[in-house]
Amino acid sequence: MTNGSESHTSQNSFNSTSAGARFRQAVVEERPLQVMGAINAYCAMMATQAGYRAIYLSGAGVANACFGLPDLGMTSATEVAEEIRRITSVTQVPLLVDADTGWGHAFTIARTVQQFTRAGAAGLHLEDQLGAKRCGHRPNKALASTEEMVDRIKAAVDARTDQHFVIMARTDAIAELGVEQAIERAQHYAANGADMIFAEALQSIEDAARFAREVPVPVLANITEFGKTPLWSVDELRNAGIRLALYPLSAFRAMNQAAAQVYSTIRQQGSSKSLVAQMQTRDQLYHHLGYHAFEQKLDQLFAKENQ
């Protein structure tokens, strides 16, 4: 199989309406596919309306935004599945989900795959860190063996109830072992069923190109701010052969900075007047929500009752 092949499922099988099929089709048609992080259902609606063909639910985002916890594997599959359901209820854009290390052994990983599929996810990625995982751009990550990670992938693949559901394998080995060993791991992961590879913490475009060239399935680069990876453009990534560009928390970081400024300014100035120009208007909010259509329906119902 050569790089650029459509994973382990042929293009002819994309006629399904499943979320996984839509995600695979988007990978075929947009190069690289921009996968935009959406921290909640409303953000997913805005990303959809901005034209993104795939969105992403970050494990760090769920931990940070929903529970006020650091990204140290402290949330559960059930908690993440609830966020999946909320997002997939408002958009048909396929959702890729961070599944950390799978929350346990083979049976647990199988349950996670099935739970996320039922919740409407298009796919998930599993990483090759040990259970007490860390953010991929932090030091001192502890890696599972290649054999253990292969077992995780096999458990996920075997558990699929939808053949199109994407099993992506993330390797955190670049920062710990170097690019060559990370590529060797990724090749093993692809050979044992991983549909795509998440190459975490790439540090040079040359390394990205080598990864894309030597790994026989589509490769994702994580374009996350304030990390080890430069903020490459889609043109640079396309030229390197990278098939997916992930922006996991870009909007979330901007939202957090804006919120901190609002909290501080109102507390200090006693008013929000100086901030209004920076805010999303009520009309803009209603536009994204489709509010007026709901209100019109409500008016129609009341009119019928009055008659």
Mean pLDDT: 92
Give me the secondary-structure category.
alpha/beta
Within the largest sheet, what's the order of strands? 1-2-3-4-5-6-7-8
Shape: globular
- Which stretches are poorly predicted, pLDDT < 50 over at least 5 residues? 1-16
What share of the residues lie within helices? 40-55%
Percent of residues in β-strands? 5-15%
Tell me about the largest β-sheet: 8 strands, parallel, barrel
Order of helices and strands: HEHEHHEHEHEHHEHEHEHHH
Distance between the termini: 67 Å
Task: Using the CA coordinates, give the radius of gyration.
Answer: 21 Å
Number of strands: 8
Q: Number of helical runs? A: 13
Q: How would you briefly describe this protein structure?
A:
This protein has 13 helices and eight strands. By secondary structure, the protein is of the alpha/beta class. Helix 2 (41-49) packs across helix 4, helix 5 (106-119) crosses helix 6 (146-158) and helix 9 crosses helix 10.
